[in-house]
From TrEMBL:
Keywords: Membrane, Repeat, Transmembrane, Transmembrane helix. One of its GO terms (molecular function) is protein phosphatase regulator activity. One of its GO terms (cellular component) is cytoplasm. The keyword Phosphoprotein does not apply. The chain crosses the membrane at residues 229-247. SUPFAM superfamilies: ARM repeat. This is PP4R1 phosphatase. It comes from Drymodes brunneopygia.
Length: 250
């Protein structure tokens, strides 16, 4: 009753490999690009009409098709709601996390948007996987690591201070020592955001421990770039650092 059945059938047939040979070699990519709009039109109550097509596209041999889905999976999650997202999208999302960098960047750019839609227990499972984003197929792909730091600044609000200290702190310190200055600079902002997270939640002991680690790792570094990193962190987060210095020394 929403759209004519023949029109829906034509859309679903776009995943047929024969169509790629006779109609358009990128027809599957066009299908993937349009899928969130079709899902929105049909509504979540009719998701069963698209589920098999979506899974077919998610396993397509062309990375461009999978990349298209990866960039829009957070939008589809909003359309489907938390239950259908957990049941049908999370497994595909997990597959994209292990895909090529060209596909992974799609989920990385909207990582916060997707994770915030999950229940807290399911969201916490991804703490163990965030470290994997530091490693890329091409180490010269510094924009991937830059995007990771930007997303982590947003993601901080989704986790409690202990989880931030146990998992995200290590990633931040690694990014602060990146070979590319742009990555290091955004990572300094991430470090300050972590300190502000501790301060806002009254986790002063964690904040002091983190500052001590920054002092040992950067302030007393044998390399000038490490000592420079500490100076930049102080510049970016003067208020947070002054607060913790006051707590420690009075």
């Amino acid at each position: 009753d929403i759209i004519p059945q023949p029109l829906l059938d034509q859309y679903l047939s776009m995943t047929d490999p024969a169509r790629a040979q006779t109609v358009d070699t990128e027809i599957a990519k066009h299908c993937a690009y349009s899928l969130p709009g079709v899902a929105l039109t049909l509504g979540r109550q009719n998701w069963h009409c698209l589920k098999d097509t979506y899974e077919t596209l998610a396993s397509d041999v062309q990375w461009k098709v999978r990349r298209t889905l990866a960039f829009s999976i957070h939008e589809l999650a909003v359309i489907l709601g938390d239950q259908l997202t957990a049941a049908d999208l999370v497994p595909i999302f997990n597959g994209f996390l292990k895909d090529l960098d060209e596909v992974r960047i799609g989920v990385l750019k909207h990582l916060y948007d997707f994770l915030k839609l999950l229940h807290a227990d399911k969201r916490r499972e991804y703490l163990y996987q965030l470290q994997e984003f530091v490693v890329t197929d091409n180490s010269r792909n510094w924009r991937f690591r830059y995007e990771l730091a930007e997303q982590l600044i947003l993601i901080l609000e989704l986790y409690n201070p202990n989880d931030v200290y146990d998992y995200l702190r290590h990633i931040a310190l690694t990014l602060c020592s990146d070979k590319v200055s742009e990555v290091r600079w955004i990572s300094f902002k991430l470090v300050v955001a972590i300190l502000q997270k501790f301060y806002a939640n009254g986790a002063n002991a964690l904040g002091l421990n983190f500052i001590n680690e920054l002092v040992v790792r950067f302030r007393h570094s044998s390399k000038w770039v490490g000592r420079q990193a500490f100076a930049f962190i102080c510049q970016v987060g003067m208020f947070s650092l002054c607060f913790y210095v006051y707590l420690k020394f009075g």
